[in-house]
Amino acid sequence: MTETSTVTLTHTAALARLGFALSDETRTRILLALREAPAYPSDLADALGVSRQTMSNHLACLRGCGLVESVPDGRRTWYRLADPHLAPALGGLLRLVVTVDPGCCGPDCRCS
């Protein structure tokens, strides 16, 4: 998209979905975890310290927002970010947060 491109309602809706997804800390943590590597819901639930039902609900929301996709694997299903552009975009948002609020992260920050 160039500077002269027109922003459409579709663009606005897509950004609103991303904002909604990021408005919940657990969903944000899921996206950041999937930025590192695809994962099974049970592994994500254990890593993030939430119930499997909670994880299922958040993954359904993120699927509905078009941010993650499920991949059948035999009797199990694993999840990954729906688009390869999402991982660097999340990294960019993290760097922006550190720029706006340098005190948000400690010395072990892995924002980039």
UniProtKB/TrEMBL annotation:
CDD domains: HTH_ARSR. Residues 7-101 form the HTH arsR-type domain. InterPro entries: ArsR-like_HTH, HTH_ArsR_DNA-bd_dom, HTH_Metal-responsive_Reg, WH-like_DNA-bd_sf, WH_DNA-bd_sf. PROSITE patterns: HTH_ARSR_2 (PS50987). It holds the Pfam family HTH_5. GO terms for molecular function: cadmium ion sensor activity; DNA binding; DNA-binding transcription factor activity; lead ion binding. Gene3D superfamilies: Winged helix-like DNA-binding domain superfamily/Winged helix DNA-binding domain. SMART domains: HTH_ARSR. GO terms for biological process: response to cadmium ion; response to lead ion. This is ArsR family transcriptional regulator. It comes from Xylanimonas oleitrophica.
